[in-house]
Every structure is written in C-alpha cells, then in structure tokens.
Design goal:
Domain Glycosyltransferase subfamily 4-like N-terminal: 19-175
Protein name: D-inositol-3-phosphate glycosyltransferase
CATH architecture of the largest domain: 3-Layer(aba) Sandwich
Strand order of the largest sheet: 3-2-1-4-5-6-7
GO molecular function, one term: glycosyltransferase activity
Number of domains: 2
Shape: globular
Distance between the termini: 16 Å
Number of helices: 14
Largest sheet: 7 strands, parallel
Structural class: alpha/beta
C-alpha cells in the first residue's frame, strides 16, 4: 500500500525521542516500510531522513515556539494550521491508499478530507475541548478511529464507543529492549520531565524506599526541573540524561524496578512497556491505562500517594523478571500492533 503518515509537529520524529508519540510514529514508519509498504512521513522537516519526508513545517515547532504547546498561542496555532491544511491537500492529491493520522489536529478529521482518502486516526491524548467535538463529528464508514487502551476509549466515549472505534494497543520491538536476567537493586524512571509525568513523586518514593534511582528523559519544563527536580538530585538520586535506542535500553535493563508516576490519565504508558520488556516489574499509580498495561507485572497504588508507591516499589522487587517480559511478548509486540494497523487500513479502504 501507499501510506501517508501524518505526525504531530511539536518535536521531530527522530531518536532520541521526546516522548511516546514520537516513538510511536517513528516505529510505525519503520515497521510499515520494512513490510514493503510505500510510506511517506508528513512531519516536521527535521525528522529522521531515513524516511521519505514531506515537511508539514520546516522545523519542529518547539524550536520556534518553545513552551507554547498548551498555552493557546495564536501565532503557533496559525503556523501549525497552515502547515496541516497544505499537507492534507497534498495527501488528498497524492494517490495514497490510506492516511494514518497521528497529528492531534482537527483538520484531518474534517469530513471532506476523510471522504477523499480512507483514514485511520489514532488518538493519543485524553479528550480535551479543542479536539473532542471534531473527533466525535468525524465518524464515517471510511474513517476508523483507534484508542490506545480500553480506559482511553471509555474516556472518549463514556457510554460506549461506536463501531468505527477500536482499541489498538501500542507495540514495541522486543529485540530493541533486550531482557536482562538480573538487576542491580536500583529503581529507574523514564519520560518527559514535566509535572504531568510526576518525576518528583518518583524521587520522593525512591528516597522513602531507600532505593537508588536514575532518571532519564528530556527536560520539557525548565522551571519544573530547576525548582522541583535539580535540588533533589544527589547521593543515590541521579539524572542519567536524555538517551535513545540501545543506550537507554541498557541503562533501564540494569535496574530492578521501574517507577511509573503519571499525574494525568495516561492513555497507554509506552515507557512502562519498554521497561517491562527488559524484565523490570513496575511500581506505579493506578491511573489511566496503567492497570490494563501493567497487570500481573507490577504493583499499582492510588495516584499521588508517594508513601504507598515506596511500599509498592519494594513489593515489586519480588516479582520474577520473566513475568513482565512474558506480558509484553503476549500483548504488546510491534508485529501484533502492525498486523492490527494493516487490518484497519484494509477496513477503511473497503468502507
């Protein structure tokens, strides 16, 4: 198939990834290309050049509009809308068999656009006012919508999802997150360093539990880093930087427990799955899709309770490392995910 992938524009679609959405889109492009599809990635122009890139904007917008993603900045909105509008026009005229929309923009959801090209839209965020109405209004036979978990689907459609909507769990390549038989007794945390990810709660829980902790990931909000995280570093708590690929997998695999601390209704939790693939049990907050993702591979506690999280981290150390690895191999592999994507493309085209 000739497939257009439409990406979010805040960060480049390139490693080391700024977050799960960038990892998702990159892995999708790589996996579909490996399966013989002709893939064009519509993304920021500074994305990974190993793919065929059609730039939606020349450079990711965090570069020119730092920190403006959630502030309703009119300049950023006009910049992004102009890019997406033109890109949607090129996709409509480009002879594509299907569009897989991961953009978080309202423009690809408009009915004339989904009527022009069979479309699969993957939702990656909880329902919020700027997007909710457009998603609900976009339902049509040739437009399939996916949520990343059952909890995510319930958040968007509390009364039950319509037939055009299905759950599409994220998937990873287990070979990229190799299993390690034994950890060193420490804890690890990975993600965007921002209040919504609860980095400070991971630090507090690790100190309570007496566990060494290493943090990995990009500093998304500098003020939060300066005020809440940097002063807490030292001794057994350290920052390991923003790593990607094999280096990050090696560092995570050395640890013995993964701390998962969302302070919002996380739609999935890709970082937890990556750690589980390395053999790490999870101690985390039971919020969003956490229970659906972690299952028997960890211990979950009420959101925000750092004392309970500390106890859960110690308890999770007793879970055999083969348990989380098996759960990933059963439910969250890249091949399983790509099979589902291809089936959705066929259904959208047939409709």
């Amino acid at each position: 198939m000739r497939i257009a992938l439409l990406a979010h524009l805040r960060h480049p679609i390139a490693p080391p990834f700024a977050g799960g959405l960038e990892a998702y889109t990159w892995t999708l492009a790589e996996g579909l290309t490996a399966r013989g599809h002709a893939v064009v990635l519509f993304a920021a122009g500074d994305s990974d050049r190993r793919f065929a890139i059609d730039p939606v904007i020349p450079v990711h917008h965090e570069h020119g509009f730092p920190g403006m993603e959630h502030r309703g900045d009119p300049g950023l909105k006009a910049h992004v809308d102009a890019g997406y509008g033109a890109a949607c026009d090129r996709i409509a005229a480009g002879g594509f068999d299907v569009l897989h929309n991961n953009s978080l923009s309202r423009l690809p959801l408009e009915r004339p656009r989904t009527a022009a090209v069979p479309t699969v839209t993957s939702l990656h965020v909880p329902p919020y006012d700027a997007l909710r109405w457009f998603v609900h209004d976009s339902l049509a036979p040739g437009h399939r919508i996916t949520a990343t978990s059952r909890a995510h689907a319930r958040a968007w459609w509390p009364s039950g999802a319509p037939p055009e909507v299905s759950v599409l769990h994220n998937g990873i390549d287990p070979a990229a997150w190799p299993f390690q038989e034994q950890g060193d007794g420490s804890a690890v945390w990975c993600g965007r360093i921002a209040p919504v990810k609860g980095t400070h709660l991971a630090v507090a829980a690790a100190r309570r539990a007496g566990l060494p902790l290493t943090l990995f990931g990009p500093v998304e909000e500098p003020d939060y880093w300066t005020q809440e995280i940097a002063p807490r570093l030292g001794g057994a708590i350290r920052y390991g930087g923003h790593l990607g690929g094999a280096a990050l997998a090696r560092e995570i695999g050395r640890a013995s427990v993964f701390l998962f601390t969302p302070c919002w209704d996380e739609p999935f939790g890709l970082v937890a799955v990556e750690a589980m693939a390395c053999g790490l049990p999870v101690a985390g907050f039971a919020r969003g899709a956490a229970e659906e993702v972690v299952g028997e591979a960890g211990r979950l506690v009420p959101p925000g309770d750092e004392a309970a999280l500390a106890r859960a981290a110690v308890e999770a150390l007793a879970i055999p490392r083969a348990v989380p690895r098996r759960r990933v191999l059963r439910l969250f592999t890249r091949d399983r995910w790509l099979d589902r994507c291809e089936a959705l493309y066929v259904r959208a085209r047939e409709a």
